[in-house]
Write a structure and sequence with these properties.
305 residues, alpha/beta, Rossmann fold, six-stranded parallel beta sheet, two-stranded parallel ribbon, 9 helices, 14% strand
Length: 305
C-alpha cells in the first residue's frame, strides 16, 4: 500500500556535500528528516544500523554515506568495501525488516568509461577501480535485498557548497592567479548537488506514492563537457581569462585510480517515474555559481547583485 508522501525520511552521510543539500531541501518542504552524519551512525556497524532504523522508523532512507577518496581506495580496498559495499547491505537488510524504502547513491565509476554513447541504466557494469568495484557491490546488495523498494541512483561529477569539489577548486585557483593544467580527454556531466537533492526528494516522494518503480536511475545534469571546458566556463563566470587553463591528458596527470574517460549517463528511466531529466549543466552552474563563490570565501562573484 502506498505511504503518505509526507512520511519521515532518514539521511545517512548527512554532513557531506550531498547530504547537507538533501536535509536542507527536505526540511524546507516541511518533511520530517533525521540527519545522521558518520559521528551519529557508522553504516559499517550492522547492529547500529538496525537500531537506528528501528528507533527512528523512517519511511525512506537515503544513503549518502560513502568512501569517496577514489585514489586512497586503491591502497585501502578493504576499507572502501566496508563503507561502500557492506554499509549499503546493512542498511538494505534493516530497511527490509522495517518495510522502509531505500535510495542508494552510486556512481559512474561502476562503468569502464570506454563507451561512445551515454550509458543506459541497464548497461553492463565493468568497474576498473577499487572504488568502482565497492560501489557496485553496494548497488547489488540493495537491488537484491529490496527488489520492490530499493532504488539505486547513479550520479557523476558532483559539485556543491557543502564540501571539496572541482568547481570550488577552480574558484580558488583563479583567485590565486594560477594557471592550472586540466585534462581534456575525460567527458562527463557536471552535476549540482542541490539539483540532485531535489531529484532524490522527487524520487522518494514518487516511491512513497507508488508511482516510481524500483531499480536503477541515472541522475546528472544533462549535456556533456570535458573537465578542461568546464574549467574554462568557471573562469569565464569569474571574469578571469579562460586561456589561463592549460589542457593536458589523463596520461600526463596519472593517478593511482584511473578516471573514466567517458562518464555520460543516459536518463530515460525518469519517464517511468513521471519525471523528466535534469536541466542542462550550464544552466545549473550559472545558478549555483554565486552560492559556491560565497562558500569559497570570495563574496559575491562579478556581476552578482
Amino acid at each position: 500500500m502506498p505511504l503518505s508522501p509526507n512520511a519521515s525520511w532518514l539521511v545517512t552521510g548527512a554532513t557531506g556535500l550531498l547530504g547537507r543539500d538533501l536535509t536542507t531541501g527536505l526540511a524546507g518542504r516541511g518533511i520530517a528528516v533525521t540527519a545522521l552524519g558518520r559521528g551519529c551512525l557508522d553504516i559499517t556497524d550492522a547492529a547500529a544500523v538496525r537500531a537506528a532504523i528501528a528507533c527512528h522508523r523512517p519511511a525512506v532512507v537515503v544513503n549518502c554515506a560513502a568512501w569517496t577518496a577514489v585514489d586512497a581506495a586503491e591502497s585501502h580496498p578493504g576499507r572502501a568495501m566496508r563503507v561502500n559495499g557492506d554499509g549499503p547491505a546493512h542498511l538494505a537488510r534493516a530497511c527490509r525488516e522495517g518495510g522502509v524504502r531505500m535510495l542508494q547513491l552510486s556512481t559512474d565509476y561502476v562503468f569502464a568509461g570506454l563507451a561512445g554513447r551515454p550509458y543506459r541504466e541497464d548497461a553492463q557494469p565493468d568497474p576498473r577501480t577499487a572504488y568502482g568495484r565497492s560501489k557496485l557491490v553496494g548497488e547489488q546488495a540493495v537491488l537484491a535485498t529490496l527488489p520492490e523498494t530499493g532504488y539505486v541512483v547513479r550520479t557523476a561529477w558532483l559539485y556543491g557548497a557543502g564540501g571539496p569539489n572541482f568547481v570550488s577548486t577552480m574558484i580558488r585557483l583563479a583567485a590565486r592567479q594560477a594557471t592550472p593544467q586540466v585534462v581534456n580527454d575525460q567527458r562527463g556531466q557536471p552535476t549540482w548537488s542541490a539539483d540532485l537533492a531535489d531529484r532524490l526528494i522527487a524520487l522518494g516522494t514518487a516511491a512513497l506514492s507508488g508511482a516510481a518503480p524500483a531499480g536503477i536511475y541515472h541522475a546528472t545534469n544533462t549535456g556533456e563537457t570535458t573537465w578542461y571546458a568546464l574549467a574554462r566556463e568557471i573562469f569565464g563566470l569569474l571574469g578571469a581569462d579562460p586561456d589561463r587553463i592549460r589542457p593536458t591528458t589523463s596520461r600526463a596527470l596519472a593517478r593511482p585510480a584511473a578516471r573514466p574517460g567517458f562518464s555520460v549517463l543516459d536518463q530515460r528511466r525518469w519517464q517511468e517515474a513521471g519525471l523528466g531529466p535534469l536541466r542542462d549543466w550550464r544552466s545549473a552552474l550559472a545558478e549555483a555559481f554565486p552560492v559556491l563563490h560565497r562558500a569559497a570565501g570570495r563574496g559575491a562573484p562579478p556581476g552578482a547583485p
